[in-house]
Amino acid sequence: MLDLTGIPVSGGSGVGRALLYEESPDVRAAAAMPPKDVDAEVRRLHEAAEQASGDLGSLHDSLAASRDAIAQIFFAHRAMLTDFLPQLEATIREGASAEHAVQTVMHAAAAKISRVSDPVLSLRAKDVLDIGRRLSRALSGASGDGLPDDQPDGPVVVVARDLSPTQAVQLRGRNVAAIALEQGGHTGHAAVIIKSLEIPCVMGVRGLTEAASPGQMIWVEGSAGRVVIEPDAAAMERAVELGLRYERLEASLLEESDLPAETIDGHRATLLANIEYPFDVDAGMERGAEGVGLYRTEFLYQAGGTLPTEDEHLAAYRDALGRLDGGRLTIRTYDFGADKESPLAPAEPEPNPALGVRSLRWCFEHPDEFLLQLRAILRVAAEGDVRIMLPMVAGLEELRRAKALIDEAAAQLAAAGTNHEPRPPVGVMIEIPAAAVMADVLAREVDFFSVGTNDLIQYNLAVDRLNPRMEPFFRPTHPSLLRLLQTTIEGARAAGIPVSMCGEMGGQSIYAVLLLGMGLREFSLTPTYIPRVRRLLRSLTLIEARRIAADCLRLGTAGEIEARLRERVTPIGAG
Ligand code: PEP
Ligand code: MG
Fold it and tell me: Could you tell me the pTM of the whole model?
């Protein structure tokens, strides 16, 4: 038995036989051989492209009905595949084998992408490599997405170095009990899809692919970030027991979806959903969300591979709003860069993308794209409770500049006679320590705050949120973070504006108690976290939560606060 740990990405417990995903060595071996008959080689390329294109079409069709935004990925890949064909053919005519052409052309294109500033070509490197892999597999006579066809009977645990979003989507319906990956983190695109598929998953597991062999029994405890290879009898028993317990807990939590998130002494909190795609609204509504507190609109680009048009923005926002049954829709403007791949990347790669042209800074460099998005938001704001949320605001200057652009977008719509709401509520994310420190000043010029702890912790503690080795230093209970939260809550209170939290911290039920005690009344959560937070908030009084918070705020280290919280609050399930 080998016990490994990684980053908890998607909760639950799953056991099954290891299904290893790795690149086929045959493809690499064949690559260097020059072709004997160039025309025949070009025909092979076209046949493989046709097969790959057919596969992409079927994948699109199988998903189009329910998950339209993800389905777009496959259409975008098909278009990209066609675009690459002339270059691939030319490389074969210069003497390369089809395999070699695919490898060199696609790798070179992927490597160049970060330096290309043409919007049509600014497709993501991972997508290009994904298409290259698909073509290579088709050339080797294999079909599909490189996920092994000879899947063992019964539930499997997918083990891989990394998964592309398209591979992640295809795990649906394949009897996948869990996923364990050597790379990745909880904010990646594949992670978001896996969470929405509700498959237990741990990422960033060092040494995993070396240690695991096909067919081995593997247990993944998603919420604990634990991967056990060849669990012994006692661990297997525990795995099965935890799986059953998790299922029972989920079922009982879902039954409470209609109940308010209200403390025993009658103080109500508002639970909202974080979404990446419009259809994610459904998962939130099923769990009793009162609206959307964070719509990560970058995924519109990531699903399609190109920047969306104004009408595409509008269609997605309308789709989300339509599913909300009158609930609020908080649309965060583009948060490209750093952990979220960025279109129209600058000519020179940035030395520190997390401290570079990301979010609002990207929008200021690309005002036309920003205005286009703002126009779509203002248009949909005429149709319901829609709010604009600005990410990565450090102070008043960016805020005022962004608000001026909102006014400009409204003026453009007015000039064109297009129906819109010129002044929907505008809020800022508090995710740079400077913004938390300046909260009282910022609060006078916005309608709401939403605390983004994923970045606030990263920037406050100087820990890269994407680096699995930094995970032990990524401490939501660090007293300095709690002080920043206090300052934020006080600043909001003084100006009379609401403050919510949309970072992952709020999703862990024990932290929600601490935050409630500190004065937070709105939580925007990954939909699957909503029921746990509701149940825990309903189990105590506000007075108790305040006492717990006051007790924690007196302590000097993250470890002490964490321990004190766990002493005083029993989490629902794993967190
Ligand atoms: C955050 O930073 O906490 C947040 C909610 O935004 P994102 O994870 O999309 O950066
Ligand atoms: Mg953020």
Answer: 0.79
